[in-house]
Amino acid sequence: MLVVAGYIVVIASVLGGYAMVGGHLGVLYQPAELVIIFGAGIGAFLASTNGKGLNATIRVLPKLLRGQRYNKKVCLDLMTLLYLLMAKARQQGMMALEADIEDPENSPLFSSYPVLLADPLLMNFINDYLRLMISGNMDAFEIEALMDHEIETFQQEAEVPAHGLSSMGDGLPAFGIVAAVMGVVHALGAASLDPAGIGPLIAHAMIGTFLGILLAYGFVSPMAARIRTQIDDMVKILQSIKVTLLAHLNGYAPPLAIEFGRKALFSAERPGFNELENHVKEVRSGGSREAS
């Protein structure tokens, strides 16, 4: 909800400050200017993207209203799930995980974490690389290189909407100037009006510049920045899984392997050492745990 709160602050600050100096809010309502600015901005966006980029942008916009996707509790559960998977593999062999990764919904390990199970990004990443590790035909360096390529590809694809919206935001002030110039041309072309009548038309034309700048820096560019923030969170969680699985593949015990993953998390979502250790002990002992 920070997006909505931020937009409310922008609108309240701009309109409130304008009203404080005696400005008339009705003057700011210029539908023709909005048609020119938004229409040109959307048209330029469509011209600069392709079908894949357009679909990705449409899909990501509703997600901007979500709260933080990977909070500390999700990260705590993720580290615990990885611990349980690695502990099972260490005790029974990697082949013992085959049934879990082929049918996660019916796996006692995965089904204990419904939030993680419902996340295709995490589930696909974990299960795909566990399959490769079970095959035994790839060493740690090869799997690490493959993980890096996949994370890089994911980041590039996920940032397509952010790049498009950022370019659109950069162009809106210019389209605001276009709208303002067209308004000035209209005012100066009204030969039948006296100077007193031309003044309001010039004032209305200047609203175009104002709207273009406001829409760009107050609304569209912040959307692009928020998308990038969400992508950073997703990339970081994948990197945490990566270093955890690689630590296991290199022979580290599960408690040390999840410590690698814990250290890779952002500090705001990173559980403490004792916090993670106690959580794992509670799960292993069959203690009550709040459902994910």
Task: Indicate the topology.
Elements: H1 2-20, H2 31-48, H3 51-60, H4 72-92, H5 98-102, H6 114-117, H7 120-135, H8 140-158, H9 160-188, H10 195-249, H11 254-264, H12 273-284
Helix pairs in contact: 2-9, 3-9, 4-10, 4-11, 4-12, 7-10, 8-10, 9-10, 10-11
What can you see in these coordinates?
- By secondary structure, the chain is mainly α.
- The protein has a domain at 72-158 and 230-284.
- The protein is built from 12 helices and no strands.
- The radius of gyration is 27 Å and the shape is elongated.
Structural class: mainly alpha
Number of strands: 0
The overall pLDDT average reads: 89
* Shape field: elongated
The helix content, as a percent range, equals over 70%
The fraction of residues in strands falls at under 5%
User: In terms of per-residue confidence, which ranges show pLDDT below 50 for 5 or more consecutive residues?
Assistant: 287-292
Q: Which assembly state applies to the chains in this document?
A: single chain
- Major sheet characteristics: none
Count of discrete alpha- or pi-helical segments spanning 4 or more residues: 12
Q: What separation lies between the terminal Cα atoms?
A: 22 Å
Rg calc: 27 Å
Question: What is the succession of H and E elements?
Answer: HHHHHHHHHHHH
Write a concise keyword list for the protein shown above.
mainly alpha
